Amino acid sequence: MPPNAAEIVAPGVHRIRVGRGDTENAFLVEGDDGFTLVDVGWASAPAVITDALAALGDRPTAVRRIMVTHAHPDHVRGLATMRELTGAEVLIHHADAAWLRAGRVPTGGRSGAVGSTLDRLPFMRWTPVTPDRTLDDGELVEGSGLRVVHTPGHTAGHVALHHEPTRTLLIGDAAFHLRGLGLGPATLAHDPDTRPDALAALPTDVAAVGFAHGAPLTGDAVGAFHDFVRATGRSSTS
Question: Which residues form the Metallo-beta-lactamase domain (predicted)?
């Protein structure tokens, strides 16, 4: 497979490796009116995504909307360029919209000193982007087949996206699949103690899981994700 080709996760759901190996992913989702792009990546990602679209026989303008799981630089540093190339509308949860417009994670946006120190570095800033509209928990985004699941913790406005036609869950950074399944470094999260509650809010009847960081889980391997959620997630009443 060419390095910039789109890899099928489920029918109509394509993974694009926008970083080295399995470290960083974006997703293209086929819909009623074209593609929905879920996340972008660093500044180099738009070139990788347009190559993947070309491999699918499409131009950048086939992307009708860009849905951002959260406003962290490794997901949005290439967003302004991608919006310019595609003309797509940008959607993000309302709790992260101010961060996206500011072009940076604000002071106090991370729980730990390491994360806060990183956010002061120039390469962690991005070109400010004003979203075309904001997302709400439970919303089914017209034309995309994606339902919004608000999963705060990594950021206040973090969302997972459930592709209902294929029962594919695109989880952003609500969980990582690097050297096993985990919640990721607490220092990089806004409110790490709420992340297990967010996992408990995820739909359980899923056939595939796509991660922003790590290889997707499909087929029988999805059972490992279900086990992880049961072991790690908790309801707000527990």
Answer: 23-213
Kindly report the CATH number assigned to the domain that includes residue 163.
3.60.15.10
Please, are residues 159 and 135 in contact by the beta-carbon 8 Å criterion? Answer: yes
Give the chain's domain count: 1
pLDDT in tens, 68-84: 999 999 999 999 999 99
Task: Determine contact, residues 200/233, Cβ cutoff 8 Å.
Answer: yes
Report pLDDT digits (tens) over 85-117: 999 999 999 999 999 999 999 999 999 999 999
**What is the residue range of 173's domain?**
7-232
pLDDT class for 35, splitting at 50, 70, 90? Answer: very high
Residue 238 within a domain: no
CB atoms within 10 A of CB 92: 30
* Residue 84 within a domain: yes
Q: Is the torsion defined by CA of 119, 124, 127, 132 positive or negative?
A: negative
Q: How many residues are listed for the chain in this entry?
A: 238
Residue 2 lies in a domain: no
Q: Does the residue 237 lie in any domain?
A: no
Q: Phi first, then psi: what are they for 226, rounded to 5°? A: -60, -40
Structure tokens at 146: 């994606």
Mind listing the pLDDT tens digit for each residue in 214-223?
Answer: 999 999 999 9
Mean per-residue pLDDT over the chain, rounded: 94
Helices (H), the chain: 45-55, 73-76, 79-86, 94-102, 113-118, 195-200, 222-232
Up-side HSE of residue 230: CA atoms within 13 Å toward CB? Answer: 8
